[in-house]
From TrEMBL:
Signal peptide: 1-20
UniProtKB keywords: Signal
Organism: Desulfuromonas versatilis
Protein name according to UniProt: Peptidase MA-like domain-containing protein
Length: 338
C-alpha cells in the first residue's frame, strides 16, 4: 500500500462581503490535510471526511510557550490531562528552547495542533478545519489517534511521537530560516533557487538533534528512515542533491534520501563553524543567496572540495548510524549538543 499526504492552508473570507466594515468578521484560515492510500491495484481507497467542527466533545486547551507565544491543542480526547496532554505541551515548549539555543535565533509565534481520536483511522481521508486569521500560528499540524491509544511512552502513538519529536522541530526550523531575508526559498509554481538542500538539511539537523535529546528510540527510527549510514554512497543522490527543487517528480524513496543527504552535508559544513555562526554568516551576506552561492560558500569556508564534503558527510552518516556520535564532540556545534 502506498500513501501520499497533502497539507494546505488558505485564507478564506468568513462572512458576507456586503456587511459594513465594523460588522465584517475577521478573515479565517482553512487548514486541510489529505491522505490518499492506494490499494494493490493502484486505485485510491475511498476518502473519509474528518471535520472537528462536526465532532462532539471538541475542546481547546491553551498552554504558555513564553514571550507571548502559545500552544493550542484542539482535541476530542477523553481525560486529556490524565493521558499526558500537559507533557505534550512541555515537550513542545522544550523544542522551542532547543531550537533557539541550537541556532542562536528566536521564534516568535505559536503552534496549533489538532489531536483527534477515532474508533479507527481511515486509510484515505480529508481533514478540514478553520481558525481565526489573527491567531498568528507559526505551525498548524494534525495527529490522528485510535480510540484509547496511549499518547506517550514506549507503547505510545508512533504518529504522535513523529509529530512532536520530529515534524514540529523540523517545521520550526523553517520558521527560523525564514528570518534570514537574503536566503532564497523555493515556492510552489515558481522557478527553483536550488536552496532546498541547505534549508531542509538545517531543519533535519534540528529535528534529529531534538529527538536525540528527548527520545532516543524515536531518533533511531527517524535516522533509519533517512538511511543516514549509506545515503551519501548513492551516486544518484549525490548527483541530484544540489539541484533538488520543490517540484521534481522524484519517487518517495529518493525524496526521503535527499532529506537525509542534505542533513549530512550541512553537518559537514557546520561542524567547523557551528550552526549559529554559519547562520550569522549567511545573514551578513548582502546579496540574495541561491543554491550555487551556498555551495561556493561551503567550499570556501571549509577548504574542502565538493567530493571531499560528500565523503565527510558519508563519514558522519556512518557515525550516526553506529551511535558513536555520542563521543564525537564536534557534532555538538551543529545542533546536536547534549
Amino acid at each position: 500500500m502506498k500513501q501520499f499526504v497533502l497539507i494546505t492552508a488558505a485564507l478564506l473570507a468568513l462572512g458576507s462581503p456586503v456587511l459594513a466594515a465594523a460588522e465584517i468578521p475577521p478573515l479565517g484560515v482553512s487548514f486541510s490535510q489529505q491522505v490518499v492510500s492506494l490499494d494493490p491495484s493502484g486505485r485510491p481507497y475511498p476518502a473519509v471526511n474528518i471535520s472537528p467542527e462536526q465532532m462532539e466533545g471538541i475542546e481547546r486547551h491553551d498552554f504558555d510557550l513564553g514571550r507571548g507565544r502559545r500552544l493550542q491543542v484542539v482535541t476530542n480526547l477523553d481525560n486529556p490531562q490524565g493521558r499526558g496532554l500537559d507533557e505534550i505541551a512541555r515537550i513542545v515548549r522544550r523544542s522551542y528552547d532547543y531550537l533557539e539555543t541550537a541556532t542562536g535565533r528566536s521564534l516568535d509565534k505559536g503552534v496549533l495542533i489538532y489531536l483527534i481520536e477515532l474508533d479507527s483511522i481511515p486509510l484515505s481521508y480529508t481533514f478540514e478545519a478553520s481558525y481565526p486569521a489573527d491567531s498568528h500560528w507559526s505551525e498548524v499540524r494534525l495527529a490522528l489517534l485510535r480510540r484509547g491509544e496511549q499518547l506517550l511512552g514506549p507503547y505510545g502513538s508512533a504518529d504522535l511521537a513523529e509529530l512532536i519529536y520530529d515534524t514540529i522541530p523540523h517545521e520550526l526550523g523553517h520558521d527560523v530560516l525564514a528570518g534570514i531575508p537574503n536566503l532564497a526559498h523555493d515556492i510552489d509554481g515558481r522557478p527553483s533557487y536550488h536552496t532546498r538542500w541547505f534549508i531542509e538539511g538545517v531543519c533535519e539537523i534540528l529535528a534529529k538533534g531534538f529527538a536525540r535529546r528527548e527520545n532516543s528510540s524515536s531518533l533511531q527510527r527517524f535516522l533509519a528512515t533517512r538511511k543516514v549510514g549509506t545515503v551519501l554512497g548513492d551516486p544518484r543522490v549525490r548527483s541530484q542533491l544540489f539541484s533538488w527543487s520543490q517540484e521534481n517528480g522524484y519517487e518517495m524513496g529518493l525524496e526521503s534520501d535527499l532529506y537525509g543527504a542534505s542533513m549530512l552535508m550541512v553537518m559537514a559544513w557546520a561542524e567547523q563553524l557551528g550552526l549559529p555562526a554559519l547562520l550569522d554568516r549567511l545573514s551578513q551576506c548582502s546579496d540574495q543567496l541561491c543554491g550555487a552561492d551556498l555551495v561556493s560558500l561551503m567550499v570556501a569556508t571549509t577548504g574542502m572540495g565538493e567530493e571531499q564534503l560528500f565523503e565527510r558527510g558519508y563519514q558522519l552518516g556512518r557515525i550516526l548510524r553506529e551511535g558513536t556520535y555520542l563521543a564525537d564532540r564536534r557534532l555538538q556545534k551543529v545542533g546536536w549538543g547534549g
